[in-house]
User: What shape does this take?
Amino acid sequence: MSREPVKILFVCMGNICRSPAAEAVMQSKLRTMGSEHLIACDSAGTIDFHTGQPSDMRMRQAATKRGYDMTSRARQITSSDLKHFDHILTMDDANYSEVMKLDPQGPFNQKIRPFCNYVSAFEESEVPDPYYGGLAGFDHVLNMLEDGCDQLLKELNV
Assistant: This one.
């Protein structure tokens, strides 16, 4: 008997660095495990500034070096995403606050959590935005995303 896949949405501000990278990391891990049918993931941003654009070139280059394929296009999170997804994981406190504003009555609050709740190998409580920093920031973010995705998969028993 097959079950519906668990649906995960990764959220950052513009949906061009952190959240699409998290999506790519998770999809790669699932493919490697042969578990793509168990989890469906997507990514979105809290702003619509980059809607339709590919991920930041620097993040795509850093991800490609690790074998991740970042093909998604930026989109903004919507209130319907709160109903559709089982887990909505935000990259920083500002993203968390913005997503919570989409659920003022609170029926979906339990689905919305900081991604760093799953990061165990780093002290940060937020995934830093590498957009305005140097190239090393993109690698650091990927390290955090790999760790967090591993821990999330363990929690989901995948």
The chain has a mean pLDDT of 96. The chain has one domain: 6-155. The beta strands are 6-12, 39-45, 87-90, 112-114. The CA atoms of residues 45 and 76 lie 5 Å apart.
